[in-house]
Specification:
By secondary structure, the chain is an all-alpha fold. The protein is built from six helices and no strands. Helices cover 84% and strands 0% of the residues.
Amino acid sequence: MTASIIIVAILAIVIVIKEFYSSESTKKFIENEQKKTILEIQKIQESEIRKVVTPIQLQAYERLVLFLERMTPNNLVLRCYQAGMTTQLLKDVMIQNIRDEFEHNLSQQLYISSQAWAYIKNAKEDMINIINSIQAKEGETMTPTAFAGTLFELLAGKESQIELAQDFLKEEIQKRFQ
């Protein structure tokens, strides 16, 4: 009888151990399957997010390149100058135009790198500083035409902050979508 009790006890222990390992492997299997499913869902979500965000990012780069282009002296003077303006008024209108366009594009910084946004801000500030410095040196003695000519001369033949920003944006967008 004691031998049969020992055999039954051993069998019970074997069954308990077998069930324990069986339930542990089942748990691990289920956990692994859950992890796989979660990863698949995350991949699908990332793909869907890219489908939405990518066009927005492209649009941000386009808008910022356009902002920089509109800030170049040729385009800025052509857009802002009106016959009969004083030099002070031309300067003020140009600076206000730059600031308005910058504010209009502030939200685009969400879709570009911090470094790219720094280039944009530097280009804006540099152009405003150049416009102000011409006015400060020459005062009201300069005509609006001479003012525009001086602006063109100052930036002719040298790489401006605007061009640096444009080049950086182009490089960054190419890297992102390669």
